[in-house]
Design goal:
The chain is an alpha+beta fold and about 750 residues long. Among the domains are: about 210 residues, Biosynthetic peptidoglycan transglycosylase-like (Penicillin binding protein transpeptidase fold, Orthogonal Bundle), CATH 1.10.3810.10; about 180 residues, 3-Layer(aba) Sandwich (Beta-lactamase); about 80 residues, Immunoglobulins (Immunoglobulin-like), CATH 2.60.40. It contains 21 helices and 27 strands. Helix 2 runs parallel beside helix 8, helix 4 crosses helix 5 and helix 12 packs antiparallel against helix 20.
Length: about 750
């Protein structure tokens, strides 16, 4: 009954006074080999690093138990024989000659420190029983090794091992373990680096005692006795600082990254050397991320060119900073268009001025190229074809795809984004872009990059089909591109890669992201201050660093490349349109396409027209004479291309003006009014009103257009000719009618103000 009463009392007290076992550990960050590469002090400014069970080597376990508590695995937390022995020794000798503290009781004392008296000892025993009830013996030993004091602000074997011996606990020798086991007895007197001779003397005394008790072999003891002690207090490593701080915010005592320190340090050196040379051009920073494509692990993470560099905020994490992506999203756009059956690599599109409700994009070089293929447009990173393609696809689809791939800023701003997003009018990070490009090396499947070894549940998103992905890879891997660095020559041994560059508006961000079968490397170069630089561009500033890194991490590889998938086929198309050739197509080229997906529309850019014998008048079926006419084939030229040909004085074959005596009103392409812009409000200075420009684009069978302002005839002119007018205040209706009777109306709002 007495024993049952004590047991009942223990459980009541256990409920009333729960075990204070919440311990704050230093956050430590390890690399892919488990080596500590960074660590952070606890809130009470202690180095208290958690030793994992796997780090408690048999040698460490054996030594600590032999010294501190031989019967650790057999007693229930309190060793009754040791208590009795200590009591009699201390009573009869009138002083403390031996203690009875077990490892479990020492853990209890560390969890709840107090004065050295009988009541503290009773509390330690009670807490020891609580510990034994709640934890296994190995877990209690682990807690002991985590809490044992080593003087100053160092607690735990792992902290001491790293700070004094620069190694993990499981790599310690017998001499080193014995050294660390004796310091907690007198942490104020036995200070490594200051009292090493005294420590060696005490260490050897214990080693000889282990020999007497035959804990270790004579050879092990002799080797340990002969081992010199040169340890002094060092510093905790502070590698990968940007990633370490980022992951620390997510919580956890031990953060196991996938960083390969060899690649990390090589890349950091390359970045440091490269940006040092760029500072003469007022370009001060860079960030790099490298993903292993076979495992999807982030093996290198460089947030800036120098963490401790204060000239341009080196502690800013450039890899995680939201920046404008420039043209880097174009490969995704074209790949999605391939999958929608809207385009193929050889599809021809017009690169001429456009205006979408006031948005008039321009190319990087402020020039236009006329007819271009999608392949050419992506190789040369042309802006107009990209904007047209996004309008064709629908920007909402692209926003959704990027949101699925964890583009957080784009997801946040989705209601504000429009066509400009494809030219950099949105916010992304190097982390996001590098992760996206790694999908191009994985048959179009995005797998979220793994920053830590705990990132085992990785989200999968089908970014594009393997066929579309292969087409993009083929385009982006060509070396005869205009964005190939002008000053780069060391390509002899460089692995084959595909890459895309980007430069943001105002030359504030330069991007170059490349990949092959092995790695995806993302580069950002710029200034954290946001200041642009005249020579900052993805091609000439970011890409040379990309090539240097690939030359370093994948030098002279076997150039294994992506193979053409089954759902990607080859066909002949018309070189002038990229469509399935008709009987009138004479120049054919081969093109990739996706069977049952890609368009099968037949090329129709030639039209047979009835014309007068002198080729000055054209006829329709309604007004053609019974005889005295001939038929001739004309190439169909879109209105925007006609305007571009006229502006650049490029000759093209025009369809003769239609029979003026024909009274039929034609259906078809009505004039397109490009200026003023429909639905726009115009502010005009009252004192010095500036006229508005009237511009229209027409079909190539139109010779004259007629302008109307608020339903009143204003002026007639030749097709493509510019006119000017000063509008009245208020709503204004503008109409343009061509000589076929086709009409287009727009409405604008005009306000006169004092400037």
């Amino acid at each position: 009954m007495g024993i049952l009463g004590l047991v009942l009392l223990f459980f009541i007290l256990n409920w009333i006074f729960p075990l204070p076992d919440k311990v704050e550990y230093s956050t430590i960050v390890t690399d892919n080999k488990g080596e500590v590469v960074n660590a952070f002090l606890t809130k009470d400014q202690k180095w208290r690093m958690k030793t994992e069970l796997s780090e408690i080597s048999p040698l460490l376990r054996k030594t600590i138990i032999a010294k501190e508590d031989k019967h650790f695995y057999s007693h229930p937390g309190v060793n009754p024989f040791a208590v009795i022995r200590a009591f009699f020794n201390n009573v009869f000798r009138m002083r403390r000659t031996s203690g009875a503290s077990t490892i479990t009781m020492q853990v209890a004392k560390a969890l709840e420190p107090g004065k050295r008296n009988i009541w503290s000892k009773i509390r330690e025993m009670f807490r020891a029983f609580q510990l034994e009830l709640k934890y296994s013996k190995d877990e209690i030993l682990q807690m002991y090794l985590n809490l044992v004091p080593y003087g100053g602000n160092i607690e735990g074997v792992k902290s001491a091992s790293l700070l004094y011996f620069k190694k993990n606990p499981d790599h310690l020798s017998l001499a080193e373990i014995t050294t660390l086991s004796i310091i907690p007895n007198h942490p104020g007197a036995l200070i490594l680096g200051r009292n090493n001779d005294l420590i060696v003397k005490e260490r050897n005394r214990w080693l000889k005692k282990f020999a007497d008790e035959k804990v270790f072999t004579q050879k092990e003891i002799e080797d340990a006795l002969a081992e010199p002690l040169t340890a002094t207090r060092g510093t905790v490593p502070h590698y990968i600082p940007h990633l370490a701080y980022k992951l620390k915010k997510q919580g956890g005592d031990i953060i196991k990254t996938n960083i390969d320190m060899e690649t990390q340090l090589k890349t950091e050196k390359l970045v440091d050397d490269y940006t040092r040379a760029l500072r003469l051009k007022n370009i001060k920073n860079a960030a790099v991320i490298i993903i292993d494509n076979s495992t999807h692990k982030v093996i290198t993470y460089v947030g800036s060119s120098g963490f401790y560099d204060t000239t341009d905020g080196g502690q800013v994490n450039g890899a995680n900073a939201v920046r404008e992506p420039g043209s880097t999203l174009k490969p995704l756009l074209y790949g999605m268009c391939f999958d929608e059956g809207l385009l193929t690599p050889k599809t021809v599109i017009t690169d001429v001025p456009v205006n979408y409700e006031g948005y008039a994009p321009e190319n990087y070089d402020e020039k236009f190229n006329g007819y271009v293929s999608i392949e050419y447009a992506l190789e040369h990173s042309l802006n107009i074809p990209a904007v047209k393609s996004l309008r064709l696809l629908g920007h909402e689809k692209m926003i959704q795809k990027l949101s699925n791939c964890h583009f957080k800023q784009i997801q946040k701003d989705r209601n504000k984004l429009g066509l400009s997003m494809i030219l950099g009018g949105c916010g992304t990070t190097l982390e996001e872009l590098t992760g996206l490009f790694s999908s191009f090396a994985n048959e179009g499947v995005y797998i979220s990059p793994a920053y830590t070894q705990n990132d085992t549940v990785q989200q999968r998103v089908n970014v594009m089909s393997p066929a579309a992905d292969f087409m993009i890879n083929e385009i982006l891997s060509k070396v005869n591109r205009p964005d190939f660095p002008l000053n780069w020559t060391a390509t002899e041994r460089m692995p084959k890669i595909a890459w895309k560059t980007g430069t943001s508006y105002g030359k504030r961000d330069a991007w170059s992201i490349g990949y092959n079968k092995n790695y995806t490397v993302g580069i950002w170069v710029g200034n954290f201050s946001g200041i642009g630089a005249a020579e900052l561009s993805g091609a000439n500033v970011a890409t040379p660093l990309l090539f240097k890194i690939f030359n370093t991490i994948d030098y002279d590889s076997d150039e294994e490349w992506f193979t053409q998938p089954k759902d990607c086929d080859i066909r002949q198309v018309c070189s002038e349109t990229g469509l399935v050739p008709s009987d009138h197509c004479t120049n054919l080229v081969t093109d990739y396409f996706i069977p049952l997906i890609s368009s099968t529309k037949v090329c129709d850019n030639w039209q047979e027209i009835m014309i007068s014998p002198d080729e000055k008048i054209s006829y329709c079926k309604s007004c053609a004479p019974q005889r005295g006419y001939k038929k001739k084939w004309y190439k169909v030229v879109e209105p925007d291309m006609q305007a571009w040909f006229e502006e650049n004085r490029i000759a093209y074959q025009k369809i003769p003006p239609h029979n003026p005596d024909c009274e039929l009103i034609f259906k078809g392409a009505a004039p397109s009014i490009t200026s003023p812009v429909n639905g726009t409000e115009y502010l005009i200075n009252k004192k010095d009103p500036e006229p508005l420009q009237l511009i229209s684009k027409t079909a190539n069978d139109v010779s004259k257009v007629y302008w109307y302002i608020n339903n009143k005839f204003y002026k007639s002119c030749n097709a493509g000719e510019k006119q000017f007018f000063i509008p009245d205040e208020g709503p204004v209706k503008i109409s343009c009618t061509d000589d076929k009777g086709r009409n287009r109306d727009i409405r604008i709002m005009v306000r006169y103000i004092n400037l």
